[in-house]
Automatic annotation (TrEMBL):
Membrane-topology annotation of the record: Multi-pass membrane protein
Major localization class: membrane
SUPFAM superfamilies linked to this entry: Carboxypeptidase regulatory domain-like, Porins
Keywords of this entry: Cell outer membrane, Membrane, Receptor, Signal, Transmembrane, Transmembrane beta strand, Transport
Domain spans labelled TonB-dependent receptor plug: 146-225
Family from the record: Belongs to the TonB-dependent receptor family.
Name of protein: TonB-dependent receptor
Gene3D superfamilies documented for this protein: Carboxypeptidase-like, regulatory domain, TonB-dependent receptor, beta-barrel domain, TonB-dependent receptor, plug domain
Signal peptide as annotated in the record: 1-23
Amino acid sequence: MKTKATLLLSLLLLVLAGQTTTAQQQRYTVSGYVKDKQNGESLVGISIGKSGTTLGTVSNQYGFYSLTLPAGEHEIQFSFMGYGTYKTTVNLKKNATIDVSMEATSSQLNVVTVNGQKQERTVNTLNTSINKLDIAQMKKMPTFMGEVDVLRAIQTLPGVNTVGEGASGFNVRGGNSDENLILLDEAPVYNSTHMLGFFSVFNPDAVKSLNLIKGGFPAEYGGRTSSVLDIRMKDGNNQNFNINGGIGNIFSRLSVEGPLVKDKASFIVAARRSYIDLLMKPFVKGDMKDTKLNFYDLTAKANYKFNKNNSLFVSGYFGRDVFGFGKDVNMNWGNSTATIRWNHVFTNRLFLNLTTYYSKYDYSLRFSNESKKKTNEDSQAYDWTSNIINYGFKPSFTYYINSSNSLHFGVQGIYYTFKPGTGTSTYGDIKHVKELYDQHALESAVYIDHEYKPSKKFGIQYGGRLSAYQFVGKGTAYFYADTTPGIRKRLVSMKDYGANDLIKGYYYFEPRISARYAISDEHAVKLAYSRTTQFMHQLSNTASPTPLDIWTPSTNNIKPMVSDQYTAGYFYNAPNDAYELSAEVFYKTTDNQVDYIDNANLQLNPLIEADLLPSQGRAYGLEIYAKKDIGKTTGWVSYTLSRTERKTPGISMDEWFLNRYDRTHNLNLVLTHTFTKRTSLSANWVFASGTPGTFADNRLEFQDWDIPYNSTEKRNNYRLPAYHRLDLSMTLKGKQTKRWKGEWVFSLYNVYGRRNAYTIYFKQNDDDPTKREATRLSIIGSIIPGITYNFKF
């Protein structure tokens, strides 16, 4: 590992040394921030360059830019789709700071986002396998129950799918949902959905930008092996007060934003609350009258600009789901995050973003006999609680060497506390508590990326990440004997460790490289390779993860996952940027994925590691994406052809078998047509191959009974029927004034009432108990209408 790191550093120094042997002409740097003039939000991906040349740069994810040019007079051009072009002349005799506020052009307002998050031309970027969506695009899509949803939007992108309606999370290039790093203002979120997967936890009124990275990962990101979903919250309007909201048939939402000190400080607060349980309360009687089904969340952010070099941002999220049947069964779960971020400009070329965060995910489950209890009976109850807490620290630097070179580097540290579960059973006055030991871990990393663009045609970004992971006490470590693969391991010994004692350490070098070659201004090819590691795992042996699944760290028995991914792609942007095309192929291998012995016991099991098996995974495929941004008809088409497989010793005859999330074909068509300034119609059609499942392929007759069994012992030997669905949505805007803007959104989900199979199970025939029949379980099997009124003033 040290040899690889030394070679990488030597290569980096040689390149940088070569860049310093240029002509001795004096050079100076112009830098600053680019913001939206109307609301003060930073603009990401703005193109900044000297007019008539290829010298240029783009603003980073915080709106900061830095451009080094020879001494003398230059015309600097700032351009961004929807904002036209802004030009200014600067005479560089020393370093200069120029902050720019760009105003959206009215002629293009119908094709850009309100916050300028229109992605940079993909043909010009070094990154591969990155998709960006903005709120304006998502608002045009057909919605479920009339509500805009972040996760439903990304599921229309190539390489992204889900097991079906009601599934928690999403799957990227065949990975499990826990293999996605989901960040909200740089704090990790462990459960990204409300209402068992039907809505995301991200309030669209507070979301500023969304980046989904599926491959070619920059060295800044680590800790997951499938994808990074990086969501940034709005900073808040620092020019005027605004109130946004919506009233729907599922939930309502309200957000308030405005300046604390004009041009220097602002805030935003956004809240949502569902009320299905309130609407159905008059119709629920008897034991079910106390049924609960709701969620709520609160998102808030504030910022203050001390001076041109220092800005502070504070943001947080709190959300919870409540789900219960009468008084007897009650569940609740939720996320909490808090982020403090400081931006500091050391010099015109050196930029710092320092982030500290807190994140917690917890859940509880309660069973009782409250509704059936008689006055002379003892009460009975069972309570189960679990959570995961982490604290993070991330200073990251960007050093702009010149217009062709930039460095990104930093360090990261995360401290984890896992509380696997506490179960308390109560009978009358007697209590019995079963508690699993807390687990602790420390994850740290140092990384560096060098972005080098020697010419207009060629560019390369390469670097690496050194990751360290320590599984530490206080706690008990278990040691098992090797047994026949596929069978529960035998416990040999246990050992207690004191607080912060090292139980097991893992260390990895993760190389990353991406390269681009421009065939012309409109055509480019890209290649990428990345290695990623993951030190935590979500344990679930159900068809899809649930909010009550257990998170566990890597231990002395559970090794970290290690993934290698290779990507190659072709990219095209039309000359007028009216549309873009891309085609990518990928191949990914993953070691040490978690699998399970048959009939594994995952609930409050102190010896849970004995039921886990290491597994190999591989995924490969083709992704095609076509997008049209300009004109009355806009939208995109995405198609994925892929295969995802697993190989686990002792399972499925030690042969490769299909992953539960494998879909051979996945097609999404998203279209929006604008009839007038006030009326538009959207459609979304999705088709996907059915997911694999394990079903009996033979039967045994015993005393007039048919007993089905799997004679091949192969997992996922059949597929569910293909999934397809059509959604429609119409937006009718009311009269728009300076003080009030309103619109009605009418939606139809599952227009032709398709009963897509979530799973298939077998039961006895009602007329002939000796026979068994397959039964399709559909979460949604009918048309679901929705209506929402959105307003802003």
